[in-house]
Amino acid sequence: MKFLILPTERPLLGVTIAGSILLVVVSLGFLAGFRSLYLPITCLDDESIFEVSAGSSLNRVVNELAAAGVIQRPQLFKLLALWRDVDEQIKAGEYRFESGISPAGLLTKMVAGDTIQYRVTLVEGWTFRQALQAIWRSEKIGARLRSASERELVALLGIDSNSPEGQLFPDTYFYSMGTTDIDILRRAHNRLQQMLASAWESRLGALPYDNAYEALILASIIEKESALGSERGYIAGVFIRRLESGMRLQSDPTVIYGLGENYTGDLSRADLLAATAYNTYRIEGLPPTPIALAGMESISASLNPLASDYLYFVARGDGSHEFSSNLAEHNDAVNRYQRQNSTQ
Question: 323 - beta bridge partners?
Fold first, then answer.
């Protein structure tokens, strides 16, 4: 019996080899394309700013990156996000893509939410309104409170007081695009609450305050009285001894604050007699609210005054003060520095 050998094995072998070659070529092409995701983007000669809108899907982000010419292989970029399992983790915001960054680097940056950061600084001694104006002047902040009343501001911040004055902690706050004035105010107020609560817990005993808010009021006065950290503890001691002995505080900054726009830049005798709730030459005890943003040094001083027998102080004219234990010494110091300043 004769067997016939069918001539079909060689063509099948050829198809198999051709398929294998094609698979290798496709795989190599895919690997080359995938590798390109980790190479610097050649079209980014300089830095580029790119914005991811809130609620954007992966498809939308990829399409916008491709339309802007930032990525050349959008499908591969999308596959990378799916492979990393971060397709739903891209954060909204404004991004700065530097020259030399790779597509994979873009994805890492957007997943991490590494957005462009701006800053606003609230300065010690500012009023609440000055702080709010500084926030409004800062770039990329949404102004929502321009027409808000003081009552509305108090409600928004959850303040247990009739006034927002002094209820922010002076510091530098970083933020990204989309942040509003409300966001910054809440952060600054919450920070104050934390710092004040911590300082209140470590206060000296037997201080003439009913609560931490009263300590904040005095801290704001200390803040306005002196820019020298070395003096604040002594100034706090002067005011606390005055409160304890029933003496009036007689603080010029409180008078100035009470005068508001009527203050001309030079305190007169008439100003010291002005009937305002903040004139501590006329009222007993503390004014009704803080008069400025108090920094941590002033808050600490109001709760940990330095021991002394001082009851008075007067400005020397160089930013420092001379302290006295009795009225005769104080009057002598006042006359001396008034004469000195008048001859300069």
Answer: 313
Q: Is residue 67 in some structural domain?
A: yes
Q: Quick one: 285 and 224 in the same domain? A: yes
Question: What pTM was computed for the model?
Answer: 0.83
Residue 103: exposure state from Cβ atoms within 10 A (0-12, 13-18, ≥19): buried
With beta carbons less than 8 A apart as the criterion, state whether 334 and 341 touch.
no
238 and 276 together in one domain: yes
Q: What is the pLDDT along the chain (344 residues), one digit of tens a residue?
A: 555 555 555 555 555 655 555 555 444 444 555 677 899 988 777 788 999 998 999 999 999 999 998 998 999 999 999 999 999 999 999 999 998 899 999 999 999 999 999 999 999 999 999 999 999 999 999 999 999 999 999 999 999 889 999 999 999 999 999 899 999 999 999 999 999 999 999 999 889 999 999 999 999 999 999 989 999 999 999 999 999 999 999 999 999 999 999 999 899 999 999 999 999 999 999 999 999 999 999 999 999 999 999 999 999 888 899 999 999 999 999 898 877 765 55
Backbone φ and ψ for 80, nearest 5 degrees, come out as -60, -45
- For 322, the 3-state DSSP assignment is strand
Is residue 193 one of the residues assigned to a domain?
Answer: yes
- What are the angstrom distances between the C-alpha of 324 and each of 97, 215, 237, 316? 61, 23, 12, 13
Domain assignment of residue 308, yes or no: yes
Domain range for residue 127?
118-197
Q: What H or E segment, with its residue span, contains residue 175?
A: strand 172-175
Let me know how long the chain is: 344
For residue 136, the number of C-alpha atoms closer than 13 Å in the C-beta half-sphere is 11
Domain match, 293 and 215 both = yes
